[in-house]
Write a structure and sequence with these properties.
The chain is an alpha+beta fold and 190 residues long. The chain has helices at residues 9-22, 29-38, 42-55, 62-76, 80-96, 100-110, 157-172, and strands at 112-113, 119-127, 131-138, 143-150, 183-184. A hairpin with a 3-residue loop joins strand 2 and strand 3. Belongs to the protein kinase superfamily. STE Ser/Thr protein kinase family. MAP kinase kinase subfamily.
């Protein structure tokens, strides 16, 4: 899809400048929709976005942003019910795309895989319904660590998905007076 011929250098320069300003890459219906949105042409922007959505696969991760943008556009034009509908679709796609396989890939890339043999447990710090937290020695790093051992009767897919989501959330927390989360021991008891 091209907006202008090679002979129309002025239009090309304007489009390239607008794409840089808006942080947009390739020219797509979504690009045109975003530019129309920025220009205040909400009805046209919505049409371009909706058409672009129809061209994508139903599980395309870019739908998360497109649906959220459609929600914002329809909200600005006064379509609040439709706006909520688009934002719900964005959340649904986000949840679909954060399945266990994606979470496991992210977890294995971002988190350390710590062997339980690399930890020596000392004092119990606290316990709850799901497990116990111990003060431990991280042997290979010569460091003190807090270790949570989960007590699971059975590990089904839903529990495993929730576990990986919790790991990613814990890993993203960085505050000066809170222990840093480094990784997980994924070994099963013998």
């Amino acid at each position: 899809m091209s907006l202008c011929s090679d002979n129309e250098h002025n239009l090309r320069k304007i489009l390239v400048g607008m794409k840089k300003q808006n942080g947009i890459g390739d020219t797509t219906l979504g690009t045109l929709g975003k530019l129309l949105w920025k220009m205040g042409k909400l009805g046209l922007a919505e049409k371009f976005y909706e058409r672009f959505v129809q061209e994508l696969l139903s599980n395309d991760p870019s739908l998360i942003t497109l649906y959220a943008d459609l929600g914002d556009i329809t909200s600005q034009s006064g379509g609040y019910d439709k706006s909520i509908w688009w934002h719900k679709k964005s959340v649904e796609i986000k949840e679909q795309n954060s399945g266990c396989d994606d979470i496991k890939k992210k977890q294995s890339k971002d988190l350390l895989q710590i062997s339980d043999q690399d930890l020596k447990l000392y004092d119990e710090l606290s316990h709850g319904a799901f497990g116990t937290v111990y003060r431990a020695q991280w042997l290979s790093r010569h460091d003190i660590a807090a270790v949570k051992i989960l007590k699971l009767i059975q590990l089904d897919q839903q529990v495993e998905n929730e576990f990986f989501k919790e790991l990613l959330v814990m890993h993203s927390v960085r505050y000066p007076h809170i222990a840093t989360f480094y990784g997980a021991c994924m070994e099963k008891e013998k």
